[in-house]
Amino acid sequence: MTDKPATTYVVSVFETPNWRTVLTTKDEQEAFDIAKEIGDKVRIEEITPKSKKR
Predict the structure, then answer these.
(1) Residue 18 domain-assigned?
(2) 13-24 pLDDT, tens per residue?
(3) Bridge partners of 18?
(4) 52 in a structural domain
């Protein structure tokens, strides 16, 4: 079994004094579109879980 772990993209915006998550998606293009729409003080985190070894 060689299933590739799914990557999740988290779009966050900075609201003093913390980062607030706006969107969590598996679609990279959707994450970039939302970040572009929001404008400044936005970050996109890419999270890929590590596969379990047996």
Answers:
(1) yes
(2) 998 889 898 889
(3) 15
(4) no
DSSP element (H, E) containing 33: helix 28-38
Distance between CA atoms of 19 and 9, rounded to whole angstroms?
A: 15
CA gap 54, 37 in Å, rounded: 43
Separation of alpha carbons 31 and 4, rounded Å: 20
Instruction: Answer whether residue 26 is part of any domain.
Output: yes
Amino acid at 25: T
d(CA 21, CA 44): 10
Instruction: Output the pTM of the full model.
Output: 0.74
* pLDDT tens figures, 27-38: 999 999 988 998
Residue type, 32: F
* 1 DSSP 8-state letter: -
Strands annotated E in 1-54 = 8-15, 18-25, 42-47
